[in-house]
Each structure stands twice: as C-alpha cells, then as structure tokens.
Amino acid sequence: MKKITINLDGNTVQAAPGSTLLEIAGANGIEIPTLCYDPRLPPYASCFICIVEVEGRKGMVPACATRAEEGMAVRTNTDGIRSLRKLGLELLLSNHHGDCIAPCNMVCPAGIDIRSYLSEATRGNFSDALRIIKERNPFPSVCGRICPHPCEDHCRRKLVDDAVSINQVKRFISDQDRCSVDSWKPVTAPKNGKKAAVIGGGPGGMSAAHYLAVLGYSVTVFEAMEKAGGMLRYGVPDYRLPPIVIDSEIEQIQALGVELRTSKSWGKDFHLKDLREKGFSAIVVAIGAWTGQAMGVEGEAREGIWSGIAMLERANKGERLSLGKKVVVVGGGNTAIDCARTALRQGADEVFIAYRRGRAEMPANPEEIQEAEEEGVKILFLTAPVSFSASGSRINMRSVTMQLGAPDASGRRRPEPVPGSEKDMLVDSVIAAIGQKVRWDGFDGDGLKLTKWGTPEADPRTLRSTSHEDVFVCGDCLTGPATAIEAIAGGRITALAIHAQLSGIAQDLSPHPFNIRKGALKDLSPEEYAHYPKKPRAKVPQLDAFSRARSCNEVSHTLAEREAVEEARRCLLCGCQEVETCLLRKYSEQYGAKGELFPGEKTPGLKMPKHPYIDRDHQKCILCGRCVRVCSELQGSGAIALAGRGFVTEVSPAWSAKLSEYACKSCGQCVAACPAGALSARFKTVQVPAWVASKHSAVCPYCGNGCVLDFSEADGRIQRLNNKMDGKPGNAMVCSRAFSGFDLLELGNRLKEPMIKENGSWRAAKWDEAMKAAAEGLKKASGKQAAVLGSPRLTNEAQYLLQKIGRAAMGTNNLGGPGTGGELDTAARAFGFNGSTGKLEDILKADLIIAAVPDLEAVYPSIAAAIREAAIKGAAVQVHSPVPTGLDKSATGILRAAPEAAYSVYVNWLKAAAQKGESSGLKGLGELSASLKRKKGKEPPAVASLTEDERMGAELLAAKRPLIVTDPSLIPGSALAALIDLLLLLGKHEGLLLLRAGSNSQGAIDQGMDGNWLPGHRPVLDRAARSELEKLWACELPSWEGLSGPGIIDQARSGGIKALLSWGDTGLDGLDLKGAFVVSGEWAVPSGFHPASVVFPAALFTEDTGTFTSFDRKVRQAEGWRPQGAPQANWRTLTDLAKHLGLKGHEELPRLRREISSANAPYHKLGWEKWEGSGHCAAWAREIVPTLLAPELENSRPQVRLLDYLAEGDMLDKFIQARLSEVACQGPRGVIDTEKS
What we know:
Number of helices: 40
Helix content: 25-40%
Oligomer: single chain
Strand order of the largest sheet: 30-29-42-41-40-31-32
Number of domains: 7
Largest sheet: 7 strands, mixed
C-alpha cells in the first residue's frame, strides 16, 4: 500500500492513508493527550484535549478525528496548543467533583498516607500500618503524643460528627510495635560506601539519618547535648512526652547502623572542614532554634523573666526551678501552654497565659488549651504586656487590652491596643514564649550564608545550602520554630536530595503528590455525607486534672486495640481508588491545570443503586462518552446511556435503575474505559486502598484466550481486577467471567495438606507418607488398566509431567481431560498440528470473519467483542448459529441453521471453491472431490438471484483475508472439516482460529495429554516419534492408541481402570470407579464420596507457576502468587511423584522446560531462558502441511464428548456455570443437537 508523507513537528514521517493524526503521532513516539478517544471505536472528539495545529487550517483540530493528507504540516506541542489544552482540562475539572488524594494526607507536613494506615489498622494489619507511617515518619510514637495533627482539622468526618482521632490511632499502632519483642524494621539498601554527617540530633537530624541509612549510607550524627532528641527531649515536658519514648525510637534509628556522637558541638569540637577531611560526602545541618525571641518590652531583661525554651530545657533536665507562686506566661502557642503547665508542676499556685489575640486565633493545639484550663491555668485573651518593673521581690507587669483590627500578612486579624486600657498585675515570674531563633553565639557557621532571620539560606526544593554544595539544612534552624512533624518532613527530603546528588538518581522531593480536591471543608455540604451513620469519637484515657497537675507522669494513655480499630473504622475513605491510573489527573498535572479556576455549580451526587462489582461516582464524570460507547458499540449491551441535556446530563441506566436490570454483563469495560475515576472496580474489602494492595498477574482460567489478569491482593484475598484498557482485542476485562469471577480462590474449602483415606474416612498425612502411598498404589496396575486425567487449566509444565508419568511410569496412553479428547483432532489431520493457524490479532486484520460457534457471545464473550470491533472498523461478519446471538446486529450475513444443516450449505461452498482452480497440489483433493460428488448440497435457485447463503458463500470466496472462528467441541467434525477445506481450497491456510474451553486446553494438546497424540502433535502410532521419546526418557513406551477423558471415565466406571492419576478439576468427586486406586490433586477438600485413596493439594491458577498456551499458540508465563498456606506449584508436586514412581525429575524449572523443548518440536525455539520470570509472551510456530479432508468421513469418527459426569456441585463447575450449559442449542450436556434448527 502506498503511504502518504506528512511533516510532524518538523520531522518527515510516512503513514498509511486514512490514518488519523493521533495514530501517526503515537506511532512516532509523540504522546498527544486524549480523554474521549478509544482506539477500538470511531473518533468521538468530545473532550478536545487532543487538539493540534495544521498549517493552513484556521484554529485547532482534534487529532483523534483528523485524517492525515499528503504534504500536511502538523504541530503537536506549541505554546498555544499547551495553553488551550490546559484551558480545556480546567473546564473539565470545573465539574469534576472529587479528591484525588485524601485531604488528611495533603495537609500532613510529611505527606503520610493516613488513609492507608487507618485502612490497615481496621483490618488488624498493624505492622503494615506502621510501615506506611515510617515511610514518612520515623518518630510515630513521639508524634502520636505531641503532633498538632492538622490532618484532623481537615478531616471530612467533621461533616458527619467529629474528626477521626488520627493521631491517637497512630499512637496505638506505633506504641504496640515499639513495645513488641519483634518490632518492624525497614529494608535497607546495601551499603554504597558513602558517608554522611548530620549535625544535630533532633527530629530533623535523626530523620535525615534514618532515611540516609535506609538508602545505604554510613551516617554519623553529632549532637551537642548529652542525649539526642533536640527539642523533643529538652523542649517538650515529660508529662506529654516521656523520655523513654524518645529513647526507644532513637534506638531503632541507631539499629540501622547510625552512629551517634553526643556532647559534640559544632564550632567548638569540629568544623565542616574536619568532616570533609574525614570523608563525609554530604553534611546535614539540623541544629534547631534554641534561643528565645525577645518580647521587645521595657524591662524584660530584669531578673525573674525567663525565656520559655530555656525554662523548659532546665525543667526537662530535672532541675527544680524557683518560679514563685504566681506566674504569667506570655504567648499563645504550644510552647506557651507547655510552660504554663510545667509551672504548675514546679509548684506555682496561680498560672496565667497572656495572649494578645482571642481564643479562636490561638495557635496552640485546642486539646492542649483545654487540658491546661482543666488543670487550673487561666488564659487572659486580648492581653499584651507593655512593660515590666520591680515591685520589691516581685514583678509588676503592665498590660493593655487589645482589639482585633484588619488582617495582617499572615491572614490573622491584627491586634491593636485599646486606648486607656492599661492595668497592672504583680507576679513572681514571667515566662516569654513568643518564639525562638537559631543560637549561633558568635559562631559564623563555617561560612554558611544566612538569611535576615539568622537561618541558613537554602534552596527551598532541595534544602541544599546556597553557599556550600555538600551542605543541606533541615528542621527549626531552616524554618524557624515549627512542629516536630515539619522537621521530620524536612529530614526526609534532605536525605532524598543528598541521595539524588550523590547517586545521580532523580528523587521526588515533593511531600505531596498532585491533587485535585473536592473543596475546602467549609465549602462542602453536610448533606453530601448524610448517609454515613454517626459514631462517637474515641475518648483518650487521661489522668484527672487534679492528679496530673501535680505530677510529671504522662497525662494521657494509649487507646486499647479495640478502641483504636473502631476509631480507624470511622474513616470515610476519602480519595480516589483510580488515582494511579486516572488520565484526567495525569494530564492536569502535566499541563499545570488548576481544579478551582472556574468556580460554580457542581453536578449533584446521584443516589444510584449499587452494582456488585462497580463503584460509580457521578460527580467525577466528565461526560466523555467512552463508557457509553464501549458498552453499546463494542459490548453490544447498551446498558447505559447519556441521559438529559446540558449541564444536568448524566450517564445512567434507564430510569436510573440497577445496571443489572438493564443488560449489564458485568464485563467491566466501562471501568476500563473511564479516564476520570468516575467508574472503578469495587474492592471486596472496602477499606483497602488500591495503591497499597499488592499487584499480581495470572492467566485467566475461564477459556483459552490467554488473557492475562492483573489483580490486586490484600489480606490474602484477591480484591479486584485492575482493568486498564489497552485497546487490544480479547482484552481480559471484556469478559464478565473474569471481571466478576476473579475470587475463585475463595471458593470451597481449600485443601492445604495431603490426605489419605482409611476405612472410608480422610486423615491428614505428611508429604512423604502420602507420596509413598500414592506411588505404591499406582504401581498396582499399568498399561490399559491405568489412566491419567488432567485439568485443561494446568500449566504446560504440569501437563507435560502428567503425560510423562502416564506413559513412562504407568505404561499407558489412556490420557485426557475435559475438552482434550482424541476425537478433537480434525485440524491435526488437516494441518499437521492440532491448533489454530491464525492469531487473535488477525480478527482486526480480516476482511471477512465467520463466527461458526453456537452463540459465540455466550461462550466466548471477549472474542465476540473483538469481532464487533472488527465490524466497526469495516470487516464483514457472518454469524453461523442455530440461535440468535449478541453478534447478530454486527453481522453482514446470518446462517441460522443447526450444524448439520450448515454442513449442507458448506458443501455448496466447497463445490464453488473447488471450481476456482486454486487447489492444485493439495493432498486429499481426490478424496474430497469424490466426497462432494456423493454429497448433495442445496439445489441452485430457479432464478438468477443469489440466496442469502449463496451470497455469503460468494463473500467468502471473494475475501482476501477471511478468518473462520470456531470451537471444535461445539460443531460436528464434518462441519469443521468442511470449513477447513474451504480455507485450504482458497489458499487461506492461516485463517482458522480454533477456540478452546480451558485456559490451557491448547497446552494440554501440545504436551500430549491425549490418548492418540504424543507431545508435539505426533501420533502415538508413529514409531519414529516414540523412539525419540524413549531415548529421551530412557524407557519403553506403549504403542497403542489410548482412551480420552470420557472414555477413561466410562472404563473406570465399569471396572476396567485399576490405577488412575487425576490432577485439577476433572470432576471425580462422587463417582463410583469400582475400586480403582485413585491419586488426585485437588483444590478443595474432597468429600467422603471421592473415589481417591490419596489426595494432594493442587495450586489454583493464581498460585501456580508455569506457562499457558492460548488457543492461538501464544505461550505466556505466570509467576504464582501464593498466600499463606497455599500449596506449592503443581509441577513441583508432580516432579516429586514422578521420582517416587522411578522417573528422573528436575528440581529446577528451567531444566524441565528444556526437556519439554526437546520432546516437543513446536516449543523447541521458544528460548525459555531468555524470558523466564519476565512474563514474556512468545508464539510457537509449525509449518503447515495442508491436507484436504473428506468431511462426510468425519461423521464416522467418534462423536465429540465432553466430561458429562462433572457434578453440578463441583467447585469450578458451579462457579463457571458449565460452559456448554450456556449454549442454548445443545441437547444432552456437551452433545450438539443437530435436529434443532
């Protein structure tokens, strides 16, 4: 095809005619943002975020809907484009009413993931909760006592009743761990050989040391005081923060390898030059702010007037201070409260706080204010001292009454003196607690450049000194007096900045991620939260006010576990579950869009019935239409639509009723398509945040498409499937079985240990005992009296080992399982291998698709969706089904006939194809010609016009890339043979997709789990093939054709099978096998009616390790996720059994795979060792040796039989709903009724 040439951002590129600018840009590595575009559907152009400039055209054009033309010049990233994209995003955000991140997280100075640790606490995962906290704060027990918790001020729970007591839950979590014998320890990086020095052992310096140690640095802390802790130890009274708490958390930091040197003063005992000479690559300055600010009041230098911080330091060192009986503290912060309460404990009878503003403006923690007043501290609001003078041995404090005027620079109303309001108060001591500053005492800081406030000047982002490249600054000496959590946050950022500078690896230095918020607390309506039941806030146990005011013992106690968990459950789980995958957030951050630029009315929250698997939040919907279009056009459901017009438009089922009542398939494609988090897959455990759940993947067990399921796990449970849409056909999330059936792992009473049946009852057994018993029993019979059954959901490695055990150890070819019987080998005789000749991707490349499956939509919904996508893109679609199907609306032709009647139509098509003369040289042409002469098709019409089935036949003959999609177990062999012959006669050998029922049905066939076929699709009767395996396995193999799955069961029921090995869901439970010795690998604990004598735990699809082969020959690797108590991988158990049966086994998976490659030609060139552990997907190839079949002879072969003995109560069968029972045209289970039309 001739390509067109365009200029894209100054580069000349070529593209296929008809390509959109968006497609061309993506193919050339240029990302153009888009929200409404879905690659599977025609362009919609509703979001207008993908706009680009085209030279010669006025304005901007949407890249998703603009087709490229020869010579077109396109610009995708100019200033104008970025500005308009930003504007478009801001317009969308104006009606996107939701929080990306929980508001408590965003106001925490350290950016702690508060919602997540509360969630872990609700589920009893206290160690995980502590890990989340310590990712940002190595002093959680300290902060659990003294943090002013701004998170609680912004807690949305306040719109229901009271804020969650976040700080007290944190205190419980950390205290429990701190006091345990096995406290949590972070995983540290290997030592990198680099040293860092920290000057100052306060919260900022010790936090920097903690995170540097975690990153692999050797850290030494130099502390001027006798003990580390800084203001935590010397500025916070013991009644609030006992020293033992500080000591224990500092010891945990030291346990990471941090060296602590106390009584080492910078400027006296060492200088920066000394540290550099000793090999320190980076230096952290965290010396705090130890000097009290002067009040600027006349007489404040006289005796009896204390600096608040100096007073607290001396008291915390254990000194008894002479404060007198009446004390006044000047200030309104937490330090002022601490000074006042300490004065009481130092023996003062009366303590006052003079504060120049009102109670509402007081910066101290409200709880601290309340506790101080309970203890007897009196607060003089709107009072400011103006002078101090001596009055004998006492101090006369003259003050004035203040009034609040206009707001100052901080936003608070400026206090102004009231004229004539002066008054005097005689006191014994005055304590000034109005602020602090860095104590330099004449030291020049080794040349550090200082600000006008006397703090080291540093880059606000990296905290690196502007005058010394190897010096970083954090804590109060940088910010001025602040909270401990602010110093801790700075310490962490400092450590990351050092790591970025020394390692060259970029680090995220922002304490908070990009966020779009629902609004400020004051702007939200309590009505929006009215559905939450009220629940009282936990009360913190405390000493009574009288007792605590006279004691330095800790005044409050830690919540009990039950109370802490209940308090954590009060969390409203703010924040979006799709925050990591939301495209609206991604592009808003990328373009700097602001969420509150266009204030105004928001879409109201709609009260919608809940869906069992989907959460909906209409306030986040941006009306891009993707979910509606995917549901209607791709899935054929039409369960949702855009209702209303204008601003009140909403996505809704009819009459806003339940989705399940309006054709919703629970396929999850609407969730996969949503770019804004308005739709999300529901977590089974509501309290699990998506971003903390572990991510795993597995190959879907429900059919042979090979869809890889990415799922989230928490608490040992699969919580949901993560369904990011990638636009590829056959996407796992198209199918409702995967989306709503991911929790198979929880079904049934899982078998976790081997069991042996004695006297009709099961008892637990050790592994070695069970292995010996199994081997001894299986050795009692061999040859035609032995058999092996395997589930089509087992890995290739397990399938290979099962057939090897059967042939090499048990001497039998009686091998099979559900859907893998020897009668399903029509394709093998036609092509030389029993598998698809085409690939799944061919669906979108075909110009004609024939869906020859009775109701494909019901049996293979993801394939039906892919075909529907192909139809949207222009492919002709024929539906050959005896019943109406979901694909009918997309079909260009429908053959509504039972398979036998359809076969007669195919005969006419075969005759027409044979006349085209393109079949010369094909094997079997003579037999086919003779067969066609014997078989009469439909009589040609009397008139010249074509009937519908003749038109469809002509359409097939004219197609350039036809593709036939069918399931060999659902149509007669004659019909399948006729369809294969049509492809061969037309020279379209690669146009066949043979769908398979189990996740590894194709793999089972490939590995030889079949009575008639060896590994690699070689007949059992092929002497040369047997000889190769006999040489590889060093044993003699049986040379007769064996039974398939149903035949094995029939034989066993009649007493002809004496030894049977079964693995996986083969449905034996409850069958009477006439005394056969049965060894079985089971997922669930067997009933007393199970015919087995020994059972082993089998790994489920999410737990197993190995490879799976999809119906189109793609080999995918799965790394099992094993929750606690899960069995080992099936290949390991089978390897152990093989050894007990006398075969050589492989302890390592790579060696087993190399043996598979040796035994199985299609797998010979897979190159396992190159992609083991990588989740890589490779397809095996096999040269097609086309041989025409005589379709009528296929009817003389055994009829396709599935395992109709599967019990209705079987775990998997009940869960999946017996695949064939979904096909309306069937007669007895698994047998096509050819009489129905």
